[in-house]
């Protein structure tokens, strides 16, 4: 389990048990995304506030409206309904907020109320901040306010390879992370936040020169990333075979390099993927089938079992018979 996975689990447990959470980390580390992900995972209504631009009355307390009730004059605060209905209230960049905002947040965190009125559904307040005492233009939070948060977390984890692969696919996701982890020194990695790394990937997918993904003056070896991308441009991945199995059924017959690449990838596929490429297996040239059996003796049985789960036992038996026929011919 990675560090970010552990932090996610703590946030989930904290929210589930009604705890307030303060999450500190550098820009682009994924703090906001993590909080939104937890709310979605738990199926809870989340109200997002950007603390630096928050108006304590218009956005939280409500607009005061004078009303007369049985001859008594009083003020009724008209508040946004999504605040009243929120199960999680999330404050982004809390240590950039105006002091009036912080005073309102103080009551909300401590008493689950605004101007003395309880929020009926509120379960947790989550706030994220950048580190104080660094290059950020932020203020130190009042220790009494900080003390109202039950859980304090620090997010310093680097980019998640799994996330980048899910975002950009194995080819581009792996290349970006390999460049970040291998080609950059410590100071250069400090210049590239997780968010900035994502922007580099987006520029690549949208055919925008990579240099425009970086702030002016950034000195990182983009040429090494370009070289990696060029080198990996034509390397086939599992997804390539899955996306167009009919195409590769013909290509493994005509191109030994494609067939060899498929043989190396097949053992790494999950059961559903093995079942999806079973026709490619049957199309492999005889000598490649023999190599596959030698390198991975149980592979045909695994494909057969995968077909039985994903399709039917009859399809699995038919595959097995065809494979055995092909192997007997080789002998």
What does this structure look like?
The chain contains 18 helices and 9 strands. It is α/β, with parallel strands linked by helices. The protein folds into 3 domains: about 5-155, P-loop containing nucleotide triphosphate hydrolases (Rossmann fold); about 160-230, no CATH class; about 240-325. Strands 2-5-8-1-9 form a 5-stranded parallel β-sheet, covered by helices on one side. The protein has a two-stranded antiparallel ribbon with strand order 3-4. The protein has a two-stranded antiparallel ribbon with strand order 6-7. It is elongated and about 100 Å long.
Annotation keywords:
single chain, 331 residues, alpha/beta, Rossmann fold, five-stranded parallel β-sheet
Sum up the overall morphology in one term. elongated
Please name the CATH architecture of the largest domain.
3-Layer(aba) Sandwich
Q: What does the radius of gyration come to?
A: 28 Å
Beta fraction: 5-15%
Biggest sheet strand order reads 2-5-8-1-9
Query: Which series of helices and strands comes N to C?
Result: HEHEHEEHEHEEEHEHHHHHHHHHHHH
